[in-house]
Design a protein that fits this description.
The protein is α/β, with parallel strands linked by helices and 140 residues long. The chain has a single domain (4-132), classed as Rossmann fold (3-Layer(aba) Sandwich), CATH 3.40.50. The protein contains six helices and six strands; from the N terminus they run βααβααβααβββ. It has helices spanning 9-16, 22-34, 42-54, 59-72, 80-93, 97-108, and strands spanning 4-7, 37-41, 74-76, 113-115, 124-125, 129-132. Strands 3-2-1-4-6-5 form a six-stranded mixed beta sheet, sandwiched between helices. Helix 1 crosses helix 3 (42-54), helix 3 packs antiparallel against helix 4 and helix 5 packs across helix 6 (97-108). The two termini are 17 Å apart.
């Protein structure tokens, strides 16, 4: 398996909001530029749109960014199987519904890593996907 990396919404937002937190922005941008295979889901695209609107980014720019994200990533469409896996992950691991849905998408996409700041760094889920918080000192 190649080092397939699922990228959570917050990484994209930090990368595109450089004026907000330069350190996190630099880390996020470097990560996105250097990973061999980027994977996102339709959930990430929707959350990104919402987060950028809340930050006052013009709709036209958000749509341009989404097109770039789609062009450089594999997009995992959320299916009924994804939702069922999400429910199991939520019950077994006590994650929020939305984090469980991200994890389910990462697992269904055969990703080895999930880059996010929202979950416990280095935790391995279903013996398959490792959560990596790139903003912590002991990240990969």
């Amino acid at each position: 398996m190649t080092d397939r990396a699922f990228i959570d919404t917050n990484i994209w937002v930090y990368s595109h909001l450089k004026q907000k937190d330069d350190t996190k922005s630099d880390i996020a941008t470097s990560l996105l530029e250097n990973l061999p295979v980027l994977v996102i889901s339709t959930q990430v695209l929707s959350e990104y749109y919402s987060a950028m609107l809340k930050n006052g980014i013009p709709d036209r720019l958000i749509q341009e960014n989404l097109e770039v994200m789609i062009s450089v990533s594999e997009v995992q469409v959320i299916q009924i199987s994804t939702i069922r896996l999400c429910h199991r992950l939520r019950m077994n691991n006590r994650f929020s519904y939305w984090d469980s849905l991200i994890l389910a998408s990462a697992i269904e996409s055969n990703c080895q890593y999930l880059y996010s700041e929202d979950m416990q760094n280095n935790q391995i889920i279903d013996k398959q996907v490792q959560i990596v918080n790139p903003f912590q000192r002991n990240a990969l």
